[in-house]
Amino acid sequence: MEAYARVIKCKAALAWEPGKPLAIEDVEVDPPKVHEVRIKIVATGVCHTDWEYLYGQGMKVRPFPLVLGHEAAGVVESVGPEVTKFSPGDKVIPLFLPQCGECERCLSPKTNHCRKNWANMQVGVLADGTSRISCKGQQVYQFLGISSFCQYTVVPDTSLAKIRCDAPLDKVCLLGCGVSTGYGAAVNTGKVKKQSSCAVFGLGAVGLAAVMGCQVAGAKRIIGVDINPDKFEKAAVFGATECVNPKDHKKPIQEVLAEMTDGGVDYALECVGDPAIMTAAFESTKDAWGSCVIAGWTETGMMNVVVEKILMGRTLSGTYFGGWKSVEDVPKLVDDYMNKKLKLDEFITHNLPLDQINVAFGLLKSGNSIRTVISL
């Protein structure tokens, strides 16, 4: 019998229905099929998108029950037929954004939006239309095709990055979503220039990573914007030169920033996922050349834009996974961390076991954590 032919029984934090706390359950994880890899998840970050899907309003409806989690790192346990780039024991980071390397989008330098298995993974199943996780005889959907709140999971071989063997998985797991998204919003999508002025809206993990990106790019002024002043000290660690709390001002924050910067910032990065804040970020940029990048995630919101503000020379763009080509760029980001060019440890405020996952959600929502890393 081949090594990949057995079912694995393990623990997972299961979402049985929307709005209810996760339940730790015994689940079964099937062997990988063609072009699939089964991985042992070692560590997973708890991202706001996970919380938003369970409790919020800003996500499209996906089927339940499901296992959340999409920012993780682990070790290959077994590989399915026709997998050539991975072997048991490899350290890996699963990717909600694939990179097949063959499609028109992968071959274009303009985008990282590969669509391999995309429609299926968005609704929680793999290439054949089924999930590899089950509980009590019932199929359990895989959030974004990943499900890292499970001790084992199965992902397509085009949705997996092989990383160096000396990388600490409980740190580099953050490169599976939040840090890569915010950092890339500044250095890839925004293309922040030296000596420029920047405003970063929202100082969670994505926002702090955007601050870090602005600093690495050589920005002169980096203004952090958040209604939680407890985040300001941490923002300074990542390179913020000053911070502003919109609640401290009677005027709209875009007017405050315009006054602070003689007409507006060169770059604004929205890292909250709130359409009203997106509008404020856009309007905080300088006319003639101001650039606003939307990194905050919402699937249902509508943003208001005054057309004249675009006509006067501002640009508005979105970023997904920070513009990184996932399979090829995530290992390079791991290298940058190992070579001390990129901060990761400073994002981690809490470390908890899987059975404390609901505590991690509470910390996230209360604003008391930046990133909690769950050990499985």
Automatic annotation (TrEMBL):
Its cofactor is Zn(2+). One of its GO terms (cellular component) is cytosol. InterPro entries: ADH-like_C (IPR013149), ADH-like_N (IPR013154), ADH_Zn_CS (IPR002328), GroES-like_sf (IPR011032), NAD(P)-bd_dom_sf (IPR036291). Belongs to the zinc-containing alcohol dehydrogenase family. Class-V subfamily. Residues 205-332 form the Alcohol dehydrogenase-like C-terminal domain. Pfam families: ADH_N (PF08240), ADH_zinc_N (PF00107). Residues 35-163 form the Alcohol dehydrogenase-like N-terminal domain. Alcohol dehydrogenase. Catalyzes the NAD-dependent oxidation of primary alcohols to the corresponding aldehydes. Oxidizes secondary alcohols to the corresponding ketones. It comes from the Eukaryota. Keywords: Metal-binding, NAD, Oxidoreductase, Zinc. This is Alcohol dehydrogenase 6. It comes from Seriola lalandi dorsalis. One of its GO terms (molecular function) is zinc ion binding. PANTHER family: ALCOHOL DEHYDROGENASE, S-(HYDROXYMETHYL)GLUTATHIONE DEHYDROGENASE. Transmembrane segments: none annotated. The keyword Oxidoreductase applies. GO terms for biological process: formaldehyde catabolic process.
